[in-house]
Every structure is written in structure tokens, then in C-alpha cells.
Amino acid sequence: MNDSRSATLTLAWRLAAFRTEGFPVIPTAIIVTVALVAIFADALAPYNPELGTLGDRFRPPAWQAGGSEKYLLGTDHLGRDVLSRLIFGARVSMIVGFTAVIVAGFIGTVLGIISGYLGRWVDQVIMRLTDTWLALPALTFAIFLAAIVGPSVNNIIIILAAVYWTRYARVIRGEVLSVKERDFVRLAVVAGCSKWTIMRRHILPNVVNSAIVLGTLQLGVVIITEAALSFLGVGVPPPQPAWGLMLADGKKGLMAGYWWLTVLPGSCIMLMVLSANLLGDWLRVKFDPQLRQL
Amino acid sequence: MKGYILRRLGYSLVSLFLLSVTIFLFVRVTGDPAVLLVEPGASKDDLEMIRQQFGLDQPLPVQYGSFITSLLRGDFGQSFYYRTPVLELYLSRLPHSLLLAGAAMVFSLVVGIPTGIIAAVRVNRWWDSVGKIFALLGLSMPSFWVGLLMILFFSVYLGWLPSSGSGTLLHLVMPAIALGWVFAAAHMRLTRSSMLEVLGSEYVKLARLKGLPEALVISKHAFKNALIPVLTLAGINLVIMVNVAVVVETVFAWPGVGRLLYEGIAFRDFPVVQATVLLGGAMIVIVNLLVDILYAVIDPRIRY
Q1: What is the pLDDT of residues B236-269, one digit of tens each?
Q2: Does residue A124 sit at the B interface (CB-CB below 8 Å)?
Q3: C-alpha to C-alpha distance for A73 and A271, rounded to whole angstroms
Q4: What is the pLDDT of residues A26-41, one digit of tens each?
Q5: Any CB–CB contact under 8 A between A148 and chain B?
Q6: Is the peptide bond before B95 cis (omega within 30 degrees of 0)?
Q7: CA dist B206 to A278, B211, B227, Å?
Q8: CA distance B15 to chain A (A)
Q9: Which residues contact residue A232 at a Cβ distance below 8 angstroms, ignoring those fewer than 6 apart?
Q10: Are the beta carbons of A198 and A140 closer than 8 angstroms?
Q11: Complex-level ipTM
Q12: What pTM was computed for the model?
């Protein structure tokens, strides 16, 4: 009785501690907000993000001289509402970022587990391929792929996944090498489990934490790369609203000092990436087996 | 020693081989390569001619054979836009890229090393926190956005610096900072952790026990040893800078290799795109090899 109560207390205390130990409240709030904005973009955006009024080109934000309350954050070179484009841009960033991270994480984790557990020539083949792809400069490689398959949201996701799975494969393989020497894996071998079952039921649950941490840390990198690709004209095709594309369009008004077209989309990218990095750092400290031993 | 170098050399050759196979296969598997290799606006007959010329109707291994032999001869194809061999074009742009990368490297080291040392000496104090925030911002701000903001501030509002082009030292300032910014953060982090490690070592303790002033311990004993990993990383980063500069070079119209890649995309000049990626990847593989061999020569303990 007493034991179970103290156990409950410990658990409650642990949960409380889990929540308060430097949990990045603001970054999480930002990511959740951006996700909500992305989901409800249709309801939130005051205008169609792809249609503009040419008569209202380069209107400054509402608080500046010449701005009107019609366009809270101003308009771009085609008279499109910047706020609406930022809102729909969140949707593109979220879809591309999360899907690419998940696909890359899936490919990398599967290959990492296979490579680490089967070893021998399978390991050699997968790891040499991983090394080579890691050596390719990510951005240049992505541009090359984009130049081949042409720009579209789906292609961007595939390209980013094809470029970024290598990091997972490397790290997960390393972890599998130590996990597969543990007793429960040996017991499973003795019990006659197939290799497939061991990898799925015994190895995977032990490395999935690392994959999640890596994924969160990569979210920022993926979003920046997507923005860079769109900025260069091989990412999300116009007239779709994407933050990187808005920066490219913003260059048209840069020399005239139309700051809102450059500052606002870039700030959105920075906030998203910063939040993902902070959350990823926290998760790493929380889940990293080496740090967790403390 | 010899065995290690040979093995390392073998790995690099495998890497270069896989690199060429990867590029080769992607071009051929993802669609009709003739469409990529022919000039935009070409006719059906031109397509047929390209197929014949590159042997695209032959089995893949045969195609790869001719692909790799022409690469080894230094033949990367002809640019559609410039009408010159791609390799020549690449080599004529490379000095600009190296200049930009060199300047960005100087910036990143001048900012990164001192801040990293201070963060390590004053670990967990407010200056360390400032450094952490700086490093996080460095990783979170896309380099092309930093470039655009600088143009807005220093060229448009203040009128101090030219917004694009090359030629004078002033043209170099903003691209170098935009490119070096991320690397400054990385170099700061590494300097900090490397310094912390060295400061905890026996010989630093001995130097302190001898009664050396703290400033001398840090500058003479700790700093020199902490610098080794930072300089190694800097060496590799210099090559990476040349390859990630594409966005910065586009923003500032800097005539380097990255700008060449961008023009390759914009003008649908596929041979240029392919050559830039191949040469960039090869450069990184080779520099990694050189660094590893250099390490093995300097430090006989390293045997993988």
C-alpha cells in the first residue's frame, strides 16, 4: 500500500519534472501554431494567395505610410496579399518539411538496421553508398536532382528524402551494432526468431528514439533546403506560395527598399528552423542514451 | 602506414566510382536522358541524333563505359549556352569561388575562434549563453536571407556597399559574411568544445601547478592544441563552402562556380549542371582523403 503510493508519487513527480526540465515551451508553441495555421489556411487567409490586384502592387504594410487596412502586411510585385501568401506558405513548408523528414527517416532507419544487423557484404554495400552520398554537397545534389525531375511539391519531397536519409543510416547502424550484442537479442536468436522478426520487434524499438531526435534536428535543415531550392527556381513552382519563392520574388522590390517582401518570409523560415532546432536539442538531451545514463 | 593509406585510397576510389554511377543512373532512370542532353527547342531529328551520338539505345554498362572514359579524359560535354567545353568554363569560374570561400573562411575563423575561446573559458556564464544564441541563430538563418538583409541595410538604406557584382574588395564584404555566417557558428562550437577538452587535460593542470599565469596557460598551452581540430574542419569546410555558395553567389551575382550552376538551371544547360555536381563531389572526396592521410602522417596513433 505504502509502496504503491510512493511509486505513484514518484511517477507523478517524474512526469512533473519531465515537463518542467527546460521543456522548450515557446518553440513548441511556435511549431504547433504554424501547423494550425497551415491546416486552417483556407479559413485564415483574407485573400487568394495566387491572385493579385495589379492596381495594388507593392503596397506597404498597414502601419506604414501608404499602407491600407485592406492588406495588413502589404502586397508583392503582382499585387498579391503578403499575409495570405505567408499563411499558405506555412502549409507548403509544413507538408514538405514533415513528409520529407519522415520519408528520409524511414529509408535511413530501415537501411541502418539492415546494414548493422546483417553486417558483412550487405553492410559494406550500404555503408559505402552512404559515405558517397554524404560526401555529395547536399544542396548541389538536391539542385541536380531537381534539374532532372522538374519542379513540383511531390518531387521536392522525394529529392529531399533522397538527399537526407544518409545521416539516419549512419547513426542507426552504429546503435544497432551495440544493441545486437545485448542479451535479449541473443535470447531471441536462441528462441528461434527469424532475422526479420528480430530486426522489427527487438532492434527497431531500441533505435526509434534516435531516429526521432535526428528527425527533429533535420526538420530545420530540410526547411532551409526547400527554401533555397524554391529561391533558385527548382523548388516549389510558382505561382504557389512558398516562403523561399516569396524571397525570390522579393528581390524584385529589394533595391526599391520594399523591406516587407524580404524580411517577413525570411523571419517565418528562421522562426520555424529555430524552433525545430531548440526542440531537437532538448529531445536529444532527453533521449540520447549516452546523456541519459547520468 | 602504407597499408592504411592504400586502403583509404581504395575507399576513395570506390566513392568516386559510386559517385559517377549515382549521377549516371539518376540521369538515365528518371526519364528520357535525350531530353536533358539536347538543347531546349530541338526537333525530333535532333533527339534521334543525340541518342545515336551518346549511344542511348545501347545497354547501360556499355553506356556507362563511354560515360566514364570521356570523364577521365576531362570531357564533361559542351555547354549549350556558352558553346564552350564545360570543364574550361568551370575552371575559369573556380578562382572566383575560391576567393569568396577564402574570404568567408577568414571571417568565420576571426569571429568563431575568439568567441569559442571566451565561451570555453567562461563556461556557463552569460557570455557562454550569448555564444549559444549566436550559434543557434547561425544555424537557423538561411545564408541567402542574411545576404538579402545585408543588401537591404547596407546597400539600399545606407548606400555603403555595392549590392552585386565583383571586382573590388568592397564587393567581397557582404557575400563573404553571408557565406561565412553559418560556418562561424560551427567553428565557434567546435573551438569551445575543443578548448574545454584541452583545459581539462593533465598538461594544462601541470602548467597551472607550475604557477603560470592563467592568460599564458590559455594562450600558449591550451589554445595551440585546441586549434588542431578546428583547422582540420576549416580545411574541409573550405571545399564545402565552394559548393554551398550557389545561393549566396546568386543573391550577389558573384561569378563563381555556384553562379555557373544557377545559370545551368536557368538556361536548362544540363551538361553544366551535371559537371558542377560531379566535380564538387569529387573535390570533397579528395579533400577528405588528403586530410585523413595527413592525419595518419602527423599522428601515428591513428589506424582505423
Answers
A1: 888 888 888 888 888 888 888 888 888 888 777 7
A2: no
A3: 17
A4: 888 888 888 888 888 8
A5: yes
A6: no
A7: 38, 9, 20
A8: 5
A9: A143, A248, B246, B247, B250, B262, B265
A10: no
A11: 0.81
A12: 0.83
